[in-house]
Design a protein that fits this description.
The chain is an alpha+beta fold and about 250 residues long. The chain has 8 helices and 13 strands. The protein has helices at about 5-15, 35, 75-90, 140-155, 170-180, 190-200, 205-210, 215-225, and strands at about 20, 30, 60-65, 70-75, 90-95, 100-105, 110-115, 120-125, 130-135, 160-165, 205, 230, 245-250. Strands 2-1-6-7 form a 4-stranded antiparallel sheet. Helix 3 crosses helix 5 (about 170-180) and helix 7 crosses helix 8. It is elongated and about 70 Å long.
């Protein structure tokens, strides 16, 4: 099959999948994915409500994403952590939760199928990313089939597909800590400038902060710069501590 024929086949495949979503103006849209794949799904409203009730085993809520300066919903702490990780990713410029409902016909079983992914993210290069959150131990055969189909749909329209689970320790702990300082209100320009100068060479976290001023005033700014990837630190080996080495981030990450 030639390149043009393959592209046409992928387009036909996407056109057979129906997508329902609520656009940025709050209007419900319904049509083929082949028609709507270029819509700004990072700006849509959730296609379904996040419910909570007494005795509920999972925790629902909203996470304020610094990336898009908007709230995104989650239906579990694992989903919240996934949203946090997307927000922390410097390649992500916007994200939305429960962005759309996909519907298609399973011809092998002669029945209609549907799936609502957990997140849609837009990368700085324009690429769309569809994210499903499900720990490995909870992916049964039916879920695996749905994720496989969703990945094929994403490939057909040029999107990425990611299925993510629990974040590893201690990355999860460190990310949750830094997320406390993600809001722009934590940025103080004079302090930030001094921190960039101090950490031009690697220094222990608290020693570098104290070289700038009162640690209680400086540390929030330091953590904010770590969140912005302007300063860098190893988040995967151990929890952040007094002696954690901090240094200026590589220029390509800024």
């Amino acid at each position: 099959m030639g390149k043009s024929a393959a592209a046409a086949s992928a387009w036909d495949f996407a056109s057979d999948v129906e997508v329902r979503f609520i656009d940025a103006d709050g209007i419900e849209r319904l049509g083929s994915l082949g028609r709507h794949w270029g819509d700004p799904f990072e700006l849509v409203s959730p296609v379904r409500k996040f419910v909570s009730f007494k005795g509920q085993k999972n925790f629902t809520g909203e996470y304020w994403a610094a990336t898009s300066r908007s709230h995104v919903g989650y239906e579990s702490w694992v989903e919240r952590d996934a949203a946090m990780a997307l927000d922390f990713d410097p390649a992500v410029i916007a994200l939305a939760s429960q962005p759309f409902r996909l519907a298609w016909t399973d011809r092998d079983r002669d029945r209609e199928r549907g799936h609502t992914p957990d997140y849609f993210a837009r990368l700085a290069d324009g690429t769309g990313v569809v994210v499903d959150v499900r720990p490995e131990g909870l992916v049964d055969e039916a879920a695996a089939e749905v994720f496989k189909f969703t990945a094929q749909v994403c490939e057909a329209v040029g999107w990425q597909f990611r299925r993510v689970g629990d974040l590893s320790q201690p990355y999860r702990v460190n990310l949750r800590w830094l997320a406390r300082y993600r809001h722009p209100r934590c940025h103080q320009a004079p302090v930030a400038d001094r921190l960039r100068n101090v950490f031009a060479e690697p220094l222990p976290l608290v020693a570098g902060a104290e070289a700038v001023g009162d640690r209680l005033a400086v540390l929030p700014v330091l953590f904010h710069l770590l969140w912005l990837h302007e300063l860098a630190v190893d988040l995967t080996s151990a929890p952040l501590g007094t002696d954690t080495m901090v240094h200026a981030a590589p220029r390509e990450r800024r």
